[in-house]
Amino acid sequence: xxxxxxxxxxxxxxxxxxxxxxxxxxxxxxxxxxxxxxxxxxxxxxxxxxxxxxxxxxxxxxxxxxxxxxxxxxxxxxxxxxxxxxxxxxxxxxxxxxxxxxxxxxxxxxxxxxxxxxxxxxxxxxxxxxxxxxxxxxxxxxxxxxxxxxxxxxxxxxxxxxxxxxxxxxxxxxxxxxxxxxxxxxxxxxxxxxxxxxxxxxxxxxxxxxxxxxxxxxxxxxxxxxxx
Length: 228
Fold this sequence. Notes:
The protein is α+β, with helices and mostly antiparallel strands. It has a single domain (2-220), classed as Histidine kinase-like ATPase, C-terminal domain (Heat Shock Protein 90, 2-Layer Sandwich), CATH 3.30.565. It has helices at 2-63, 67-92, 106-115, 118-121, 139-156, 189-199, and strands at 101-105, 125-129, 134-138, 157-168, 171-180, 204-209, 213-220.
């Protein structure tokens, strides 16, 4: 009877472990599938943006070739190149079991990405309220999140952009506000990707459209504890 009880306990334990393992991998496969769908939509969306940008700039060059037009072309190319670089790196990481967690200064990362949009920001007022804030997170995920949010803000803002970075009650908060133009042409794929990525770190994305458009990124201070 004792042997029977022990064998039953062992079998039930093995069944439970097997069940937990299967469920874990099913969830992982579903997550990867959803992420791949979002990435494919994002790449298509980015290609559309690329064509739109260059169509406008080509029309400018048709009128007259000048330095400003060429600078706009160069800046647009730099942005698209960075965008595709981030997307490609993210896709490659799908085959990696563990994310590469680093200790990153979020303020520096925001400023680094803003510098890519120098030409596009010349005619807009920038209000920055940033302080040195460390976060432990996969750098490529962070770049994808911040780049996508800033790209949307620059694209749809009319005259001003306000970015605030702060930490409170165990959370790191990035709030981005802009006086938005018509965003009805946007697909919303970018923000869906941001939401998916930030949820991997038990974070949250919030948006609000009133007089201005507000995007809020909320990271737990221990953001490296991502959801597997």
